[in-house]
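Write out the 3D structure for:
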Amino acid sequence: MEINVWSTTTPYRQPLTMFARTFWPLGSRALGPPGTRYTPAARTRSADSAHTGSWAAGTSPPSQSTSRPCGQHPVMEACDSTEETPLPLALTRFQLSEEYGFLLPDPLTELPAPYGPWMEIAHDLPQLIASRRLRSQVHQMPQLSTQHLQGLEELHLAHLVLSFITMGYLWQEGEEGTVKVLPRNLAVPFWEVSQALGLPPILSHADFVLANWRRKNPNGPLEIENLDTIISLPGGESLRGFILVTLLVEKAAVPGIKAVVQAIRAILQLDEETLHKALQELAEAIGDMSKALKRMHDYVDPAVFYAVIRIFLSGWKDNPAMPDGLIYEGVSDEPMAYSGGSAAQSTVLHAFDELLGIRHSEESTAFLHRMRDYMPPPHRAFVEEIHSAPSLKQHVLSSGDTRLCAAFNQCISALADFRSYHITIVTKYITVAAAKAKAGWAEPGERAGPSAKKPPSALEAKGTGGSHIFSFLKSVRDTTKEGRISA
């Protein structure tokens, strides 16, 4: 179905093939229309999860309004009027899988032939950026319609490709050579694909990690030696390592995601034995995430990360290098501001925080909730449904079960340890690397990049998502520790 989605008073008036109804959970919201800045909407629950606020321990959830007219969601679900009512937090309702969690399962690596011009540029990004030719290549790129994109896989790959091209285009000349306008032939299709997926038109964790991986041997394991990225940017092996180690952290979290689901079901069924097992599995999964994160040292050079890679993850919100935001030509005459890629855009820790009842400071909570607008809407809905479920902490407290209290506290300790280790990583890859770069430590040669001669400084004390990085990380680590149940 084609709908003219914008009023005739806005610059962009072409019909847009609407995928949103096909892919979004009911109740999710689109990004606003062009002509206005993107601002995070109030947190909402999908219609499927709206009932959960009234769940009571020991009772089954009410009949769920998940049945839809045949044809309403043709790609996501088959018509089956006899489908059983799904269990609460059934992973498939949120585009999650038992094997991959939040990762996009076996992402598509090539778009259909009409999108060859995008793919050709995307596959040559490191060279085009290094030779300062990317912007001229984008200017010569044809204006392609998005109407031939079909299905989630093609949409996610298109968003990945266009987001990487956009970041290269913006930051090709470093933070002192930014542009104010994203050209129409890039901006319009990027906006359309973003609207279809419910994602902002900027590179996010969902693109950079979740949808940007492939197996070298299709039948081989999901291990770093058998993995590669689909699209790349300057940074060589360090960029590959940064993306794939982060992917392995997501993969390590999968048993924890399943444990979250089991824990909530166990609370509803008053099944203390299953709940205890689920909490043990959650703590173990978080520990495995910390082990995966430690592999960053083996695969990522701090100098390359700081001087070359990091700028390409930067956004145009809360960034002194682009204080006015970015105009998406053909979409809006006014500049729009979006945050850059951030680990806070990963749904994993949001889900664990909600289950464990972690309550962060007002400032940290505001930032984290803003980052949820950079998640795929089904993943955001998963977090909201956990938030609406019965309180795990209250259940453990009221049970008086010392084993449950100990298992709960193990989860808290594991999560605090993970966040402490994240601070260690950030110290090495940003603070120490920045000091060495300032001292002229960065050497020319293979690790040189567009910003290596003069290391980027606009986000020296901030994360690429725009947070004041150390105060934020230490705050969320400390409030995690405060979540322990006292003996």
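Residues 1-85, 445-453 have pLDDT under 50 and may be disordered.
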